Amino acid sequence: MKKEIGVFMVVSAVLLSGCGSDDSGSAKQGAGESPSNQVATQPQQETKQGTTESGQENKIWSSENNEVKVSPVKVNKYGTPEVVSVEVNGVNKEFNWQVAEEPRVFYTDVTGDNKPEAVILSNIGRGSDTSVDELHVLNSEDLSEIKVPNYEEVVAEHIETQVTKNDDGNLAIKVKAQGEDYEFSYDVDPGVKVQNKLNFGGTVTYVLDNQKIFSYIGGSIGTSPIYVCRFHVTYKFDSLKNEFIVDQIKAESFGK
To answer: Which residue, 34, 176, 183, 216, could crosslink 160 as a Cys pair with Cβ 3.0–4.6 Å?
Structure first.
């Protein structure tokens, strides 16, 4: 079934970031990646000396009631944490996570088993045309990471796109998301070179709202890039696989 998506002007890209934490799991902020390599599980301990820059070793980001604490263990030459320690109820584990901005930390049930998980949302890269979030969900008992599909997996498995430049300069964009068809147009300058498919990865925003996980994945054309649409992805927990899977995808145009 085809849906015509309304056309409207994009004034600016929306870069969402949150601050603070909420045990209810309500927060909004846009990429997420698949679980990162875990370094070690260890008793609670102070940050290793000599691995962080001045001031970094004292940073602690926590959930609202301090059930989950995240602190940098090692930073790169630019001062960005690249190894962090996560502590939940006295259990501590280190992860190879990059944290470019202050993470948002939550302690809430997102799997539906009536047991809270540790949820860490962080931005790993932001620029004038880019903003990429990363999401991590941890079992609060052993700090094992629960997989959430990253944007690359979502696009590869569930989204097909086709971009055609018409003689009048307008782009005809066709999208199929989970078997549902969308068509819309976008007016571009004649000199803009476009590929025959949408590009992804420039903007990825994760949202934790009412104990549910969502993401917004931007689709772009050109090398600049020019964002022409976004995909609203809803995730649900699969108890048999013990991981999150894509539940629903909706496409929204940024046409002009």
So the answer is: 176
C-alpha dist (Å) from residue 104 to 131, 177, 207? 15, 29, 11
SS3 state of residue 58? helix
Distance CA 24, CA 109 (A): 8
DSSP for residue 176: E
The residue whose two tokens read 């934490």 is: 21
106-119 tens-digit pLDDT: 999 999 999 999 99
pLDDT at 56 over 80: no
What's the pTM value of the predicted model, to 2 decimals?
A: 0.77
78 exposure class (CB count in 10 Å sphere: 0-12, 13-18, 19+): exposed
CA distance 132 to 150: 11
CA-based nearest residue to 105, from 70, 74, 147: 70
**Distance separating alpha carbons of residues 85 and 45, to the nearest angstrom:** 10
Q: Which residues lie below 8 Å from residue 70, measured CB to CB, with a gap of 6+?
A: 60, 61, 62, 84, 85, 86, 87, 99, 103, 105, 120
Q: Is the pLDDT of residue 206 over 90?
A: yes
